[in-house]
Amino acid sequence: ADNYDSAANAADGMCKYTIRGCTNSSALNYNSRAAFDDGSCIFPSEGCISSLATNFDSLANVDDGSCVFGKPGCTDSNALNFNSEATEDDGSCVPYREGCTRPDASNYDSDATVNNNSTCRFEIPGCTDPNATNYRPSATEDDGTCRYQGCTDSRALNFDSSATVNDGQCDYGTPRCPDSNAINYFSDATADDGSCLYTGCTDSLAPNYNSLATVDDSSCAPYIAGCADSYAANYFSLADVNLPETCRYAGCTDSLSANFESRASFDD
């Protein structure tokens, strides 16, 4: 209170209070009841007080009607949807891009915004190899369908690995004996038909036996065949060709005997 008495020990209801506030009548917050100015006066400051305006004045407290509100739109003059009245770019600009917009074209441009179908290219599938039987001159794109005629039989002399269609001209040559060592050699033979004949000794027991000979020429060297095992009962010392199946051995032939001899052919 303005009349506070520090010596008083009982309130008498006579306290007086001074109203503090803005005492300047020109201020926005002028208080006619205030008896003491507390320095809180706020004086008018004209300007745009709308925070949504492009010219918002944070220091202004009195709107002077000058607020300017932006107009969103595309502000890029090169864009298709340029808006000359727009004051704020809203990211809606559509760039100018000319191209082929037909999805069935080989050069279709999904990013094109301006149609120019005169640039579209349309491929013609087909065989583009002039050497193929189904060559298509108007084809612009090879579709892998080319066909080539030739001999497709790998057994033929003129087998063509690149041929896809057999032309029926496979050459199998003249199948005869092409080996000059054979007695039936045929000089014009182009293929071996397995008919080659070779002369020689065909007796497998003869010392000069020729395993390749197919025709015996009576050249077999004489030989004496017999049992050449000196332990055999019928050992033949003059035999130069051993015939083990003819050898006979003496021994115990009783399988229950302790001295049973399994190779004995007669009991001694």
Automatic annotation (TrEMBL):
Identification of the protein by name: Uncharacterized protein
Origin species: Calcidiscus leptoporus
Superkingdom: Eukaryota
